[in-house]
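Entry 14. Ran structure prediction on the chain below.
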Amino acid sequence: MSVIKVRAFSDVGLVRKRNEDCVLVAGWQTQARDGALVAMEFTATMPFVCAVADGMGGHAGGNLASRVALNVVADRSSTWRTDEDVTATLIETNEQVRAIGVETDLQGLGTTIAGVCIAAAGIIVFNVGDSQVFSITDGLLEQISIDDSVFDARGRPTNIITQSLGQAVPVDPHVKVLPLKPGTYLMCSDGVSGVMTPEELEAAVRQSDLGDCSAEIIETTRANGAADNFSFIIVEIPDLTSPDTELAVTIPANEDDAAEIPADEVRATPETLV
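Output, structure tokens:
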């Protein structure tokens, strides 16, 4: 039986007072203040979606924006088949996040998003903003997403982004389709990629075990100050020979990690590893 393995983590960091990041794995979400590494296993299914959203730092309601965006994606992604479906949902998500901002009188409500969808068309990688998606092949890290950032004189992305979900003008999502084959993918907010050096991140992904890789990302981010919220998902995709099998989730009884998400938004509570 083909098994999709996932590690997910979200944490407020060492400086911020609230977590504006949120992560989504196959309908399960968390926006934990004090993160714990979460391990999940799923039998192969399509579509299968993982995503990280980073509420815009310094803007009111960033935590709400990231949660709303992933709620929309979780609701709509069950019908995803092609990259056009993903694009349409992200355009709709932009409108819904903006509408929430208007309704709640929260000016500047916005969020980034970056994720992966396993679908019949292939592995669909998508992003808006500066949260990133990487492929990991034989310990080598390659960025697949496209940063919506202002770049400095040395060509490095700054923390100024050029588009996000929730903006008044139409959003232009980055969506690409990769071949449907085994592989490992990392999605993260800039609280990880902007704090760890490329060399540190590459060293972490050279760990063959997903748990060890995740632990090194967490430890290094905290050692480097964790000045922002930081979140990531690592998904290991097997050889998908039976993509239409029923979704199954390995779910022990521990529900601590889901404490900060309303009960009706939590669809699965997986194993929590401290």
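The helical segments are 62-76, 83-104, 190-193, 198-205, 210-223. Will compare against last week's run tomorrow.
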